[in-house]
Amino acid sequence: MYDVSHKRADAESCPPGSTGRDVSLLNLVVALRNRFMKAGEIDDLNRAIAWHRNDLELCPPGHRDRSLSLHGLALCLSNRYDSEGAVADLEESVTLGREALGLCPPGHPDRATYLNNLACYVGSRFREHAQMCDLEEAIELYHAALVLRPSGHRDRFILFRGIALCLSDRYDSQGAVADLEEAVRFGRAAVEFLPAGHPCRAIYLSSLASFLWKRFHQHAQVHDLEEAIELYRAALELHPTGHRDLPSLLHALARCLSDRYDSKGTAADLEEAVTLVRAALEVCPPGHPDRVMSLYNLASYLRTRFQKHAQVCDLVEAIELHRAALELRPSGHRDRSLSLHGLALCLSDRYDSQGEVADLEEVVTLGRAALELCLPGHPRRALFLHSLACYLRGRFRKHVQMHDLKEAIELYHAALELRPSGHPDRPSSLHGLALCLSNRYDNQGAVADLEEAVTFGRAAVEFLPEGHPRRAIYLSSLASFLRRRFREHARTHDLEEAIGLLHAALELCPSGHPDRSLSLHELALCLSNRYDNQGAVADLEEAVRLGRATLELCLPGHPDRAGSLHNLACDLRLRFQKHVQMYDLEEAIELHRAALELRPSGHRHPDRAVSLHSLGCYLRTRFQKHAQLHDLEEAIELHHAALELRPSGHRDRSLSLHGLALCLSNRYDSEGAVADLEEAVRLGRATLELRPPGHPDRAISLNSLASYLRRRFRAHARMHDLEEAIELHRTALALCPSRRRHRSSFLRELALCLSSRYDRQGATADLEEAVTLGHAALELSPPGHPDHSLSVNQLTIDIQKGFQKRTLMHDLENPIGLRRAALELLPTGHPDRSSFLRSLVICLLDRYDNQGVVGDLEEAVTLGRAALALNPLGHPSRASSLHDLAHCLAKQFRHQPIASHLNEAISLEQEAL
Hints:
It is a single chain. This protein is 77% helix and 0% strand. By secondary structure, the chain is mainly alpha-helical. Helix 2 (21-39) runs antiparallel to helix 3 (42-57), helix 18 (381-399) packs antiparallel against helix 19 and helix 20 (426-444) packs antiparallel against helix 21 (447-463).
């Protein structure tokens, strides 16, 4: 303070025109600028600039000191640009710097200094406008200055740092790794040649640290990051509390710690990063030039912490901080695009977490605004092209508007053009493009898109260096594309490769790593698919285990919790279908209810329809086991709600049509309302229209529609329904190769239709084919298979028909043996046990009628009583069981006229009526 006051007094003591006034003014402005550099008071700098302008008026063209005045004013204007970002100051500093250099021809003692300063101004202008000509000129100027400051020159280290900064900028713009390596080399040289105790040592340490940080991002060599962290800590020790550069150093160290967190998943690094930036914000009160950077960076790390712990308060604070930073970067500010981008990222996360469509729309708007501020040639243009593509893909997944996905794909291609081979961010754009192509495949079914997704996914992994923090994510994505291709072509090597990739991803994501849940989730899906394909129960059990592990990592509030609940429920349903343990189905239903609560209707969550559909399917399954009509009614309501969220044109509309048709068909079976059956047929036809030839689920739709038509035939006896059903079943079978998991059920359904046509028309060929199909279905569902009992039941019924008509006498013993085998496989309490007991009763009665073995009649009565006990009052099959037992007792009375047998038979028939 005394120095500035003293210099001002000296200047005031020299009135205009007096000798020495120019020297006193120069001394004053130097003191004012020095105080600004220490304290950051912009008024000091403004006064220095005003005094410099006065001084320049005293040094007209031709004055021997004009170059000094030009030089001083340029320095101050450059400092004010650095502080306030006014481009006019930067442009003027370049103009003044050129004029000053022009006044210092080769051989002038100050030429090296002016070359250095002009290089600095032109380099700053490159960072403002991204004009490569500025950067190339800056590098040339620095090299020219180096020639004038040979080895041993006391200021040579200044040029080393300057040229290192420019080479680093050129690397950022063009991705040439050689520039980055040179930047590190010059940065090290600058630190090595810096005199001991130099006041700028902290700045030079931090510059070298920044180059090493960039090299870490290029090669993913953790030692570069570790060295950068140590250099930043050393620089911080040289900056006492209150130093003007303290906030920027705190930010730089926090950035490196955040990257180490991304690489190693150590939560302490992330917490320290948040702490450091909060400290930076505290020393940057409103009006401080670094406040906006503190707001922005703190928001970024809080967003990262939200992604780790799913604490919404972190995300809410991050959004508030980004909005505050945006206010400090008004229209025209050079970094406004960064704040638009940061806010968009946070709102995108909130949309993913809470499903608020308004957030998604604002995200797209902000992304477009950021891109508009980065014209072709701007160093951040590729980033914002990439980000906007991500947001549009997110909106596509919500609204399924193909124009969003089309634009996203175009933006990714544009980003890739700016990120050529070798560019550190090329893998991220390859990965994003692959995701979009995978989405378009899911929506339109074009296999070419899936093939491209695999190709781009592989390229993303190949170009990503070993040790890169996002390698596990890219491996998981590639595995997902390969899993989809497996489902398309059923090539086992795709699924095996996917499983191998996911195991590799998990090795990169040890316990506590933020991306571990993603790899666990995808591996569970792959193992579930392999179970569907190969039937290895160990795969299903492992899928369930991994699903539970995924759910444990997705605590309440985690954005992926709903998806984890959903997928675990799906695997539990598969296990239920395998082992018929009701607790698996009950848990699956509860998990789907929990997932549905996380996808509320008011927020129009993009996956709400999925949860509605899945819960409806599982409740239908429970209805099929317990015959509780309220389950079926709720399932129908859920499918209607899902269908409303999947209007015409929605990629998953066919799923909801199919699910609703199945439920209505079941309600018809239970209550006999023909309107339900007619609606099921209509919905089945609508489903089939949405699954044209080539669709992976066309065979299922053909089979389902055929089953509805068979039911309608039974209701109205119109042969054209049965004929159409048979043709549909044959077409479905043709689309379902041998060993596919649905083939046994398709065989049974066709056998049912042929058996029905035999009943109507008596053509032995139909019954013979039905039995042949039944045997084929039984071979595909051996003991232990969830459909084994159904296959046994259907085959025995058809064999029994042949026996009754004397067309299949050779199979007389087969129905009874098959039924006894089936009953042994059905544990006490199994929902199908009563129907098999009744079926065996009928077979025994037939054999009794044919052969007169009284033991068959006695066993039929015993089994009939057992079947009735399993069908209590209210059970839909009770009346049939009453009738069967009454029929047995009537035969028993005719064999041995005991009045109690006849009385009981009459009583049972009366109850049945």
